[in-house]
Amino acid sequence: MKYDHQSIETRWQKKWEDSGIFQCDTEADKPKYYVLEMFPYPSGNIHMGHVRNYSIGDVVARFKRMQGFNVLHPMGWDAFGLPAENAAIKNGTHPAKWTFANIDNMRSQLKRLGYSYDWQREVATCTPEYYRWEQLFFLRFLEKGLVYRKKAAQNWCPKCHTVLANEQVIEGLCWRCDSAVEQKELTQWFLRITDYAEELLADLSKLENGWPERVLSMQRNWIGKSTGAEIRFALDGRDDSITVFTTRPDTIFGATFMSIAPEHPLVEELIDGKPQADGVRAFVERIRNMDRIDRQSDTLEKEGVFTGAYCVNPFTGRKMPIWVANFVLAEYGTGAVMAVPAHDQRDFEFARKYDLPMQVVIQPQGEALDPATMSAAWTEAGALVNSGNFDGLANEDAKQRIADDLETTGNGRRTINYRLRDWNISRQRYWGAPIPVIYCDACGVVPEKEENLPVVLPLDVKTHDDGRSPLPHTPAFYECTCPVCGGKARRETDTMDTFVESSWYFARYTDATNDKAPFTPDALRYWLPVDQYIGGVEHAILHLLYSRFFTKALRDCGFIELDEPFANLLTQGMVLMDGSKMSKSKGNVVDPTEMIARYGADTVRLFCLFAAPPERDFDWSESGIEGSYRFVGRVWRLVEELREHLLAVGACSSTAEDAKTPVARELRLKEHATVRKAGDDLNDRFQFNTAIAAVMELVNALYLAKDELVADESGRKVLSSAMSTVLTLLSPFTPHLSEELWALLGHTESVSTLPWPRWKEDALVRDTVTLVVQVNGKLRGKLDIPADASREEVETLALNEPNVLRYLEGVTVRKVVVIPGKLVNVVVS
To answer: What pTM value is reported for the model?
Structure first.
């Protein structure tokens, strides 16, 4: 029979779907395993990155089922957001029509790959059935004070016509369209992720055994905890003060000027009526539109302008000029920095440029720093000088003593600062979940009533060619009645950031068809946390951080009972072409549909899993996929050739009594060793490539042993057992091939429902072992000896091996070295 992958694969896919073999439900008496790959944005077609990601997850799901787990393996669509809207506008269609057509196509592509999803749990985030619960969460967060609205400078993408969260600005560019991001004053809705900064940081320790260290480090750095002090500097000639945050209170006596951010709210007050006012305003306008990442760069040319105002150092009484500086950010600390040019490199460069005073207050041991001759700031440890009563203290001790003084005098306090900023979830675009808030002239900002949810996104609107949202121009949507007073009101026309949808979808999968609640407590308790999450490292400080926060917020609102959503995380590598990321612009894209048509889904899956360990990148190659195709054909031909001799037995079913010959015993040993190796590789390390390699070696052993073993019944039992083991072990990787050949051997049950084979210790014990014999390190013979031979017996046999005896004539044996199971070395002189 010809291996017709097209008909074989589609036939088995239909059987799986018709039987509902991969559907699951809670089973209290069975251990659960929840494996989840990050769900796709419905772009229209899957790419090789999808194939690798979802193939990894499918092997895990199938393997865990074989281990006896009740496995939840769902799939859905991250279907709202800018890309869908922009693509729909470009193609002259409605985002909903474009999105659902893409979902239909991609669903078919995923099914064609034979993934074992529970499709009854499918979700699409753009449906009211999904986002109604997201709107409920918003209202509960609002009740709890986790949602607020404020006006501030925001990251604005002029091409996408919307604001972006800080995490969505990559090196000054929009994460979606790569346009330069500007700053724009807008009133927006925020989630208080900063309320959870300390818990988000501390709970990373709970993930250390299950998450890659790289991701944990990225999150720690993004949260950015700094321990220090806030210090108040009185404004000269005024009754108020300006506050700074510093991690170096030990350098307070060396503060000679103040630097504030262009966005600082005091700028206008400080320059009011001063001759510098116009120059400061021009500088502020120029710097505010600079990239924030560039403004923090060590290579940035430091620039500033004097405001004409002064503050007073609370320890020295020095009048310090207040400058607006390009390297100070409003969102870090207080937006103001006490400048200590002798001990901070940025301040040093700034002071040198503008000829500002410099005071040394920390001296290294054995040196006397002079500001006039310093070529760089001294930022290392030392003893305090020119610091009043604190002179002579080691600077680390001085940090605590000065902090004590600040709190005693009321000039400051110990505090902790975080780089993390609250999450801006307002988007000025159409294709997103409506924010369930109403504005009433009489009542102000009013939450929608829960019983009125969902606030449905209207589908009968026409999008604008330039990307602006049609919602503010759609009276049928925004005109409404105030839930409090019953008067005329206006509905919020911003929609939610699409990352809100992906921050809780994993919980919805546990109870995806529930139309009375987002999920039930019983379903959550049984299924969560996700046991194995799989996705790209690029989501480390976007989706993964947001999901952790959202889980904790849902917990505190009484929805969920756990702290962390994902127990284990695997970040898969990319599929490259000639060392480069695949992209249409480079013309190096490999189409999965074309590959499936040519080689079959099993071959495509196998190559993606065999080419490299899952966490590493690998290059797509024609020779590589051809090699996988040849292996699939080799297994097919082996069963075809031996079918009339093979018995319908299970994996690892032959006995020691069946293995009567050395060839049979060796094949049985290889069979059980392969089961152990593949099981360890899958269970402990997800090393799919080495597990597949082990099965390939077993297939080679079958080819070598087949001609001898078909001759008698006991040999056929050993051969049949080993062949059944091959098909069972391959079933997570090449499920269609395994199902077809399993059925050809006469089995009536699906190979997908079989337990993982159990290897036997006795099968791994060799009756005989082969040792090499060396004389002075040179190979001179080989021995086949009983595996339980004693050291003395091994020595005797080695010294009497005929070929070895030739090299012992006329010499003296000084020593015999025996390395059990490997070699014997006879040392002579």
So the answer is: 0.89
